[in-house]
Amino acid sequence: MKLWGGRFSAQTDEGAAGFHSSLSFDRRLYRHDINGSIAYAQMLGRQGIVTAADADLIAGGLAGILSDIESGVLAIDGGAEDIHSFVESELVRRIGEAGKRLHTGRSRNDQVALDMRLYVKEEIGLIRARLIELLDALVQTAKRHTGTIMPGFTHLQKAQAVTLAHHLMAYFQMFKRDCERLSDCRKRADEMPLGSGALAATTYPLDREFLKERLGFAAVTANSMDAVSDRDFCIEFLSCLSLVMMHLSRFCEELVLWSNDAFAFVEVSDAYSTGSSIMPQKKNPDMAELVRGKTGRIYGGLLGLLTAMKGLPLSYNKDMQEDKEAVFDAADTAKACLSVFCGMFKTLTFNPGNMRQSALGGYTNATDAADWLVKKGMAFRQAHEVAGRLVLCAIGKGVRLEELSLADLKKESPLFDETFFDVLSPEKCVQARSLPGGPAEAAVLEAIKSAEEYTQRFSV
Q: Measuring CA to CA, how many Å separate 152 from each of 19, 352, 429, 435, 436?
């Protein structure tokens, strides 16, 4: 059944009908669509726009359709134009003339806007739950590694010693912000658009406040044209997911590097690795690589929807149908990536010995050498120069800074004495950085305490 056939005298071209149809992908909105229609039918009855008997008949018929779809008794017919027309046609088939009254005062424009808002709100909850699980896993792992020394990097070159806990807590902060961005995004999606009609509201006395409360929204939309003609809440959702995926991708890149023999910081579980069809020795971090690769899918969805919306005059245009596949695919991809990544992370085996040994190389204590001189009264810029010359000397001798002789040191400055060697171990370098937010154990434990308080707010 078409919802718009009266004005037309010719059938839609078969190819055009298929091109126009959205049922193949918007069928997943059946629950949101039916629940929205049940609330709308109840409101129509309360307002006397349809009889109470018809309202009850419509709501009961819709509930039956929902039950039958979920139980598998009713298959969603691929011949319908979209999920809205499928549900309405099935309703009329089941209850007759009363079913034709459901759409009174409503347009597919505000109907689909409702469905998408309900969907985005629901998906935000599901994705945030996966993020909270990952945040908790990061905290629990960090607690076990507050003393695990490793090199920190800039430009992928060894820079200064940190701890694995400090490194993991950096990702905690990133994913925490992702959680908060999604919560903020939900606020923009949490407005109820029914009553907007096609673009100019309706002449019927709809009770929008009832619909808002019945469907669990925080507010009603303030402008009927805006309500049906923008998808910025979808774009914001895709933007939030793009940032989630960017952070996952960066973490995956590190796991790919760290699991390489050149680093050997971590071993990925066999459960999250694959082998080679020709090289028997290979153990490939394919799950990490796939998460890294799938990031581009969500970026593509974001860019695609931004492009689709950029030239649209008010109000509704059919281009906006392109929102659904991008949003659906992004939500599915993000949930799958978070689930796989979290499982992979929880089963990682870290190699603290290799991490500490790596931190001993690369002259990661050179800044500490300069700081020691500053504390002896030398200006930092001069101390930086002296420390740089010490590094050059050590490179020439093929030794670490702490392996230089006192005579070597005094050639660069008379300030050097035996106490210099006391500050150069990676443990001392880390513990000296005790400012809030730093890698010293006390500072990291404070960060972990705050992080646990955050995650426990969401525990059941």
A: 53, 14, 12, 17, 18
Instruction: Say how far apart CA 109 and CA 315 lie, in whole Å.
Output: 10
What are 404-434's pLDDT values in tens digits?
999 999 999 999 999 999 999 999 999 999 9
pLDDT band at 14 (very low <50, low <70, confident <90, very high): low
For residues 168 and 145, give the distance between their C-alpha atoms in angstroms, rounded to a whole number.
Answer: 9
Mean pLDDT, residues 178-206 taken together: 98
For 267, the token pair is: 């071993």
Catalytic residues: 155, 276
Q: What is the DSSP string of 90-110?
A: HHHHHHGGGGGGTTTT--HHH
Distance CA 349, CA 151 (A): 18
- Give the C-alpha separation, 252 to 105, whole Å: 50
Cis status of the peptide bond prior to 269, with omega within 30 of 0: no
Per-residue pLDDT of 365-403, as tens digits, reads 999 999 999 999 999 999 999 999 999 999 999 999 999
- Selection from 73, 156, 144, 82 nearest residue 112 by Cα: 82
What does each C-alpha distance from 341 to 136, 144, 411, 427 come to in angstroms?
13, 20, 52, 30
| Residues 351 and 266 sit within 8 Å (Cβ to Cβ) | yes
- 380 to 24, 363, 372, 387: CA distances (angstroms): 66, 18, 10, 10
pLDDT at 6: 58
